[in-house]
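ARCHIVE RECORD
Type: protein–small molecule complex
Small molecule: heme C
Source of inputs: curated submission
Record status: active
Notes field left blank by submitter.
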Amino acid sequence: MRRLSWVACLPLSTMLCAGAAYSSTGLAEYEKPWELCGLCHSLDGNSVMPKFPRLAGQPAGYIEKQLTDFSTGTRTNDGGQMSAIVTEVSSANVSAIAQWFSSQPHPPPAKAHEVANSVENSIDPAKGELLFKDAGCDQCHSDSSSVAAESLIPLLHSQHAQYLSKQLSDFRKGDRTHATGLPGADFINSLTQIELDHIVSYLATTHRQ
Ligand code: HEC
Ligand code: HEC
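STRUCTURE (tokenized, with ligand):
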């Protein structure tokens, strides 16, 4: 954890690292295992930078599965950041870390004009909602804030638009695997980029119920 904490701070501003205490070697030390995660995802899981997904309120089961997938190399679309971080996380702490982020207040939705800068095409959240439901995305991705803790399916509402958009494009390029083989999950490949941008705008600007 020590060596990596320091490495993780390198590309970040000193402000982001300011919360950590430093040992005599100059390396960061943390009281709680999720403080390391807070450098990018924020301590309350409501990350500021849109390339870092918001973890607040996600089912603990989903968070744990992603950590496992980064660790085994099943998921590799993180630019190497998560795969490096997980090697420094003790397996004994994984469950507590997932619980911490899962129990934080759900993120607030974005305003439409903020989303407009994150996607290629002009957006229409109302169209996005229809497309999301027509394509059956909502059969798996609930808009309810009270999904089961052990769920392996992420909440998408109020997630950063830029992050969602990147995931959809990674699924299409084959850089990340969606829910392969499950009915409806392959629909992402049959939607146009404009339709996906509408969906992203709907998700990012909508409250979880
Ligand atoms: C140096 C920055 C950084 C740190 C520190 C970091 N992460 Fe991440 N995290 C990322 C990036 C980058 C991604 C993937 C973005 C992508 O897929 O485009 C990510 C993705 C994730 C995801 C997947 C979320 C989703 O919706 O699928 C989870 C879960 C996660 N991180 C948990 C953690 C935990 C827990 C820690 C602390 C042990 C942590 N992260 C520390 C940068 C970081
Ligand atoms: C059969 C269930 C199912 C359906 C239908 C489905 N998904 Fe998913 N989706 C999943 C699962 C499971 C994951 C998590 C995959 C993993 O473990 O990495 C996921 C992940 C995602 C993510 C990444 C979220 C994150 O936090 O990283 C996005 C975005 C997404 N789906 C969008 C969609 C859209 C848009 C549709 C409709 C076209 C759709 N999904 C339909 C099950 C489904």
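CURATOR ANNOTATION: The first strand starts at residue 21 and ends at 22.
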